[in-house]
Amino acid sequence: MVEEISTGFCGAVIRCEKTAQGPTVTLEDRFGKHRVFPMEPRGFLLEGRVVTLVRPQSPAPAAPRRTASGSLAVPGARARVARAGRIYVEGRHDAELVERVWGDDLRIEGVVVEYLEGIDDLPAIVRSFAPGPDARLGVLVDHLVPGSKESRIAAEVTGEHVLVVGHPFIDVWEAVKPSSLGIAGWPRVPRGQDWKTGVCRALGWPPNTGAAWQRILGAVSSYKDLEPELLGRVEELIDFVTVGN
Predict the structure, then answer these.
(1) How far apart are CA 4 and CA 226, in angstroms?
(2) Rounded CA gap, 71 and 137, in Å?
(3) Which residue among 25, 60, 200, 213 is buried most deeply as judged by most CB within 10 Å?
(4) What are the tens digits of pLDDT across the range 87-100?
(5) Strand intervals (E) in 10-51
(6) Coil vs helix vs strand at 46
(7) How many CB atoms lie within 10 A of CB 152?
(8) What is the rounded CA–CA span in Å between residue 125 and residue 119?
(9) Helix axis angle, 228-242 to 92-109, nearest 10°
């Protein structure tokens, strides 16, 4: 409710318009009568104070929300019924990290992620899974480097409907950028020592690998906190198991 100073007309502001003569404001009094006034500087009273009315600014268009993986979010989307295809990762930490960043995408696509306890039994697991055109299998392997045990197993099971990819890190912990954790870099742990325990010791963290992992996982809010060597491999697996569906 404002009062136009020169006429004393009081009313509620119901409309602002831009005209050739300049911006105007329409007031409506308590009897429903409308009057249009130019929006002149210091031309109105608001609760006894002289004020200048200005046109409200149009809100900037909201940027589309994105998921933690950087994909466009789909508000209100329901999780798709799980596909027959699967993505396997080596351990619980790998699965939790994938869920943290790609969880929204995976639910929309209906992709289930399961974890293995190492990959020594992967050939038997693949045979039991019986992958096919409508049930593709993707596998993410830690420290997949040429000449390793992991690379030999990967070569044994890879086929038309099975894709095994890996990252070069000793453990998925290393796939989290040091800058996201506020550390200079991941420490080198001498061969023969448990890597995770050695990392905790070198960083001055309590020797509790479970607590250390929660600290690491808590530092991850989006794909920006992960190294590209992991990002590319997970995206590749999602594309592989959802192709043609």
Answers:
(1) 60
(2) 23
(3) 25
(4) 999 889 999 999 99
(5) 10-19, 22-28, 34-38, 44-46, 49-51
(6) strand
(7) 9
(8) 9
(9) 50
Report in angstroms the alpha-carbon separations of 122 from 18, 114, 144, 210, 213: 70, 13, 14, 25, 25
Residue 191 DSSP label: T
Of 193, 196, 154, nearest to 172 by C-alpha is: 196
The pairing of beta strand 112-115 with beta strand 86-89: parallel
Give the type of residue at 172.
Answer: V
Return the pLDDT at 56: 79
CB environment 129-149: b (16+ within 10 A), e (fewer): bebeeeebbbbbbbbbeeeee
pLDDT at position 47: 86
Long-range contacts of 238-243 (CB under 8 A, 24+ apart): 238/87, 238/102, 238/105, 238/106, 238/109, 238/111, 238/138, 240/136, 240/138, 240/163, 241/83, 241/85, 241/86, 241/87, 241/111, 241/136, 241/137, 241/138, 242/83, 242/85, 242/109, 242/111, 243/136
Q: Look up residue 40 and give its two tokens.
A: 């002149």
**Chunked mean pLDDT (size 10), the chain, 245 residues:** 92 88 89 90 89 80 74 70 86 94 90 86 91 93 85 90 92 96 94 94 94 96 95 94 76
- From 107, 218, 215, 98, select the one nearest 167 (Cα to Cα): 98
Other beta carbons within 10 Å of 103: 15
Please give the model's pTM, rounded to 2 decimal places.
0.69
